[in-house]
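Troubleshooting log. The previous structure file for this entry was overwritten by mistake, so regenerating from the original sequence record. Sequence copied from the archived sheet and checked twice against the printout by T.R.
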Amino acid sequence: MRKKKWNYWCVFGREAMFSATISHLDYSVVCFVYFLEYETNNFYEKTFLVPFGKNYTMPEEVQDSVEAIHKDMGLFFIWNKDHVTLKVSSTDFGGDELKADIKIHYPENLDTLNVVVPWSNDKFQFTAKQNCLPAEGSFSVSDKTGTFNPESDFAVLDYGRGGLAKKKYMELGDGIRATGSGCNWIEFWRTMDRSYRLNGECRYFKWQHH
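Regenerated output below.
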């Protein structure tokens, strides 16, 4: 079992989806950025890996800033009271320059899904799912530009801390509608937890696989 920490952000727009992740897998730091164009179904991604990652730290609070810089790419998730700003830049994103500046708003009294999986008395895995977060801003790669409107576009945060087996499989998903409702799910071993958000309230249900 290894200690695994990650902050995964995904922003859903009307024309494209943008995602950025900073993760520390105990033996290395892995960060990646990608975006998907809905109309063309073109997918673009860049990943960097830092063995051991001794100079990288991950915060222990969900609402805390984190950053990762390596050669030609930098990722900054900056918290400021009621919003977080995603700033990402790369001078070589498939040969092009990438820039992203996206502000994600946190509504008051936000309901979230939080799951703690106890492996033993002193080992656990914790994940927090925070979705239906209004997003505004843009990203650009060469002549491609994606914009986000807080009235119709939303972001989701997947935050994880704790221990997982080396080859553990996880199923993650999230769906968001412009009405503000959404759903997400996560699978650990044989237990799956799903939740959905309706009219601002987070609800969940749980069952065992057979």
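Residues 2-208 form a domain with the AttH-like fold fold (CATH 2.40.370.10). Archived copy saved in two places this time.
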